[in-house]
Amino acid sequence: MKKLVLIFICSIVLLLNITIQTFAYVTINDHVINGGVGDYGNARRNYYINSSAMNYSNIIDGAMNDWIYTTSRLGITTPISYRKTTSKANSVMDIYAGSYTNYPYGYANGWTEFWLYQSEVIPYHQNWGWNKVYLNIYNINKLNNSDSRKGVIAHEMGHCFGLNENNNNRYSIMCQMSEGRLVTESRPDDLHGINYLY
Amino acid sequence: MKLKIIYVIASVAVLGVCGLGILVKGNVENKAQVSNVLITSKMNMLKQEGNVSTEKLTSSIDDKIIDVQTHVDLIKSYRDVNELRMAAQIIVTGDVLSLKSYMSDMAIITEYKIKVTEAYKNANVGDILTLVSAGGIIPYDEYMSKTVDKAENIKNFEIKEPKAKLSLYKIRTTMGKNQIIEVGKKYTIFANEQNVIDENGKQTLKYCTVGVDQGQFNNEKDGSVNNISLNYKDNINQFKKEILRK
């Protein structure tokens, strides 16, 4: 009888772990970037690094690679397929950097805007066509290693893909740094979110 | 014995399916909650050309508002009143007498006068202070004139409307989860001195809400503290006791 109880408890614990991991992501009312995040092996989107952010080029590329090459790292495949471009016109994710010390952006590591053609839009209401990502070098240069900086960039990229803040899960890249994010690259919860959206 | 084990595993599987249902529901509720933040902010989206929004356009000028919200990765979260108290140079409760919003650097901010009714730190009852909050509403024309992306020479919000009609539009931005400051309402504010680009484009020091919006509490929402980011659900009197705690 004790064995049965033990098996029952173990099974419950295992089940809870599996189900919690399956659903621990938050979307922006299920809205997405028009045209999707690529289709790995078939179609790709492009990201563009403005000259202001060129010093962070390697870190930006690393953050993007962590979103793309997930099969070997985590055993989860998503459609994400992005390549760096030098042509802004071909890009759907434009990345800028600057030293923003004034209120209110002085409090930010980075932020993401959502655009459709030439209009900025509110993603809770609708899909978008492309994004602008701003990195606040005033704050991210204070971070003590390049991994933490990569985490900021990967977080903003997650917004571009359609993931929202996930502050209840410190092991998600979509947890805000201020809420105690413990990872610096996309994790299974984030990738399940991508596969749910696209 | 084997049958019993099979029976237990089958029971767990059934429970699992039920649990899964609950979790799915939880996920949906979570999304609804995010949506609710917008609903309580009374945000209206205009139907612009190319947009997929199905919100209705209304004829009221007040409704000709385009909302903009950026997703920000903040450097710090203030987890309780004590942390806010430590960060703030001024803590007051008061009534907002007047306000003006303008484009500051890359964001809309609101400068407002507040008459102090309860003073907790570096202020006196009856003082009229000028404070700054993130977000606000400004005319479309003003926004357009100051938001040209110099690097790309792109103008934001090129709405295809006759020029005369454009003057009826306004831009509203919010940062964080709080609502924009309103005249006649009572707030408790934690503020500290920060660099601000004023409406003349000059950098100056002003007292701003701590943590973008985290040190801003609307006292009038059901009599309770209104700050989702803090998840502080106590009533206003307990909140005030906490501010005064040494």
How would you portray this structure in words?
The complex is a heterodimer of chains A (198) and B (246). Chain A is of the alpha/beta class and 198 residues long. Helix content of chain A is 34%, strand content 17%. Chain A has 6 helices and 6 strands; from the N terminus they run αβααβββββααα. Chain A has helices spanning 2-23, 57-68, 71-74, 137-140, 146-161, 188-197; strands spanning 45-49, 82-85, 93-98, 108-116, 119-120, 130-136. A 6-stranded mixed sheet of chain A has the order 2-1-3-6-4-5. In chain A, a hairpin with a 2-residue loop joins strand 4 and strand 5. In chain A, helix 2 packs across helix 5 (146-161). Chain A is globular, with a radius of gyration of 18 Å. The N and C termini of chain A lie far apart (47 Å). Chain B is α+β, with helices and mostly antiparallel strands and 246 residues long. In chain B, the strands form 2 sheets. In chain B, strands 3, 4, 5, 8, 9 and 10 form a 6-stranded antiparallel sheet that branches. Chain B has a 3-stranded mixed sheet with strand order 1-7-6. In chain B, a hairpin with a 2-residue loop joins strand 3 and strand 4. Chains A and B meet through helix 1, strand 4, strand 5 and helix 5 of A and helix 1, strand 1, strand 2, strand 8 and strand 9 of B. Strand 4 (108-116) of chain A pairs antiparallel with strand 2 (71-74) of chain B, so a sheet runs across the interface.
- Indicate the multimeric state: heterodimer
Please give the most extensive interface between any two protein chains, plus how many residues each contributes: A-B, 58 and 63 residues
Uncertain runs of chain B: 17-62, 227-231
The main β sheet of chain A shows up as: 6 strands, mixed
Going by helix content, strand content and strand pairing, the class of chain A is alpha/beta
Q: Would you tell me the overall average pLDDT of chain A?
A: 90
Number of strands of chain B: 10
Kindly provide the radius of gyration of chain B, computed on alpha-carbon positions and rounded to a whole number of angstroms. Answer: 23 Å
